[in-house]
Amino acid sequence: MEVIAIQKSALDGMTNELKALLELTENATMKYISIFKEEKWLDNQEVCLMMKITKRTLQTYKDKGLLPYSKLNRKNYYKLSDVRALLEAGQPYNTNDNGFTDE
């Protein structure tokens, strides 16, 4: 076991810096909390499972503007209400058993 000794002032400085970083992180995420509390958001996999479609079909929905989405950290998210609305309206494209899309 290795023991490393540092001065108390250095430890206090590191502790203060970590607290400041934690506060910055909390402040940065606070602006997104209200967005996620208002509505449930789904990722690609959850949407595909819910709609029983392939990832390619989901991409087609996005490309044609049929399913709005938001991008956060290079990941797409979809509002549950938008997915439900598309399901209720009837999926514009259906996939075959082999995964290809009928257009």
TrEMBL record:
Annotated Pfam families: HTH_17
Domain Helix-turn-helix: 41-89
Protein name (Swiss-Prot/TrEMBL): Helix-turn-helix domain-containing protein
